[in-house]
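Crash report, auto-generated. Payload:
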Amino acid sequence: MRLAFILGEIGSGLRRNLSMVISVILVTFVSLTFVGAAGMLQLQINQMKGYWYDKVQVAIFLCSDGSTAPGCATGPATPEQEQNLRTLLQSPAVAQYVNDFQYESKDDAYKHFKEQFSNSPIVDSVTPDQLPASFRINMKDPQKYEIISETFSSQAGVETVIDQRQLLEKLFSAMNAASLVAVSIAGVMIICAILLIATTIRLSAFSRRRETGIMRLVGASKMVIQLPFILEGVIAAVIGAALASGTLWAVAHFFLGDVMAKQYPDTAFISPGQTLILAPALIGLGVVLAGISSLLTLRRYLRV
Amino acid sequence: MIRFENVTKVYDQKAQPALDSINLEIDRGEFAFLVGASGSGKSTFLRLVLKEDRASSGAVYVAGQNVANISSWRVPRLRRGIGVVFQDFRLLPQKTVFANVAFAMQVIGKSRSVIRDTVPEVLKTVGLEGKENRLPHELSGGEQQRVAIARAVVNKPGILLADEPTGNLDPTTSMGIMGVLDKINQNGTTVVMATHDDDIVNEMRKRVVELQNGVVIRDEARALYTSMIPVVGQSRRLRDASGRDEPPTVAPPAVAPPVVPPRADRRAGSRAELRTAEEGQA
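Recovered output after restart:
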């Protein structure tokens, strides 16, 4: 009975305040979309880092079937060439710059590739043979990349030496800046949302002061009086958060999945499913926003 | 049922207190009128009983419990034991008579079946059978007040507070309302009614507590509404620019022959306090 009563009160409150409720939904929608966009950029950065990014700085790719580099004239790297490179890496001249190194076989490379490009159609057309084996080196001082590059580029069986960090770091710093901008805009929008929710609840409390006055007099508990107002704000915010989550999913699905992935097939993009892990966070944030602003408002405008 | 011990309520430090060291006891099942000019402290009295306000000093006991000791989350429980009726009815305009009364039960979580059984019964008590589905604006003022009374007593409170319930009604309708309140009182509910309506007070012959400037100046059983004395006192005070006035005398026999001996102890106490207060002012 009490639940049905509270639900009825919420329904009538939402109907009476429809335009305000819609504006709350839209403002939370926009602000949480910005929060989510920042989250999505970070997910994308993680996706692009792949398996090795945080572990090593320099990669020495060995020759494989299709290699055209001058060092690969003799065809794919042989086990002897591999062993030579390993010995060279362990020699004192090189070892003083190297923390440690790992060998990534073709099969390992295929496994990591499949993980990173799981959302991309390219994954189906790649076989382990096409991927080069590599030595992944964790440098003592990443700035000393040149030494490794000079030493190994000319070795037999080496296709190329790459400092992956340098390639990606510029892109990542741009993306980090973009997430920062998104978060700042989200911050302003969230303040806006809090104030709007507070105003909405105030209006709602004012338009129902007759009812709440009577409820007080006949001894309704604080919860029965205040819960409908709090839930009104929370419901509006949750709808806004759900819309924001839907938008992020749509961006991942239609923009990244259909447009970007076709234009940049060699870049790993996040999948639409991955954006859904942001949804609970956004909805939780919406609930907290609405809860805080309604508690503060009711304390002032709905004395019990 | 309601006991005030030395209760003072000050709204504004510089102004005169709204209630000034009130001592008053209203017993279970009693019917008491609270009379006095506007601003004499009647509404403050009712607000203190409901714990809408806190007394500045002194103790207010309702049903044996000091309201100052009731924590804020238990105040609703206190209010469930008190019904309230106002001059302006305060009905919900978009709800029917039945729904208005049922509202008071819904919000404290009564079950649907209990509501279905109780509401018609209460509407019968206040004489509104057959009007369950009317909206408030389709009813006369007297009928609206009956709905408000039904709502106030539907949860069977031990106390009914009425703040000028007949203030908006004509004399005949008012007497009908008084009949309803009397019936509720007969059923054991303590009724405290603040009023300006001298006809009603004179007709009912119940206990009358008269307040003036926050002080009880008269407390008589089965008494009359004799507001002339404070009015005379006030007009004299207006005329006397020096501000030195005599304490108002109590009910001269010519105007209000007391039907039973007045409660000498209470009266003496309140008059003594009044005198001290006025000497203080002078």
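Post-recovery validation: Residues 264-281 of chain B form the longest helix (18 residues).
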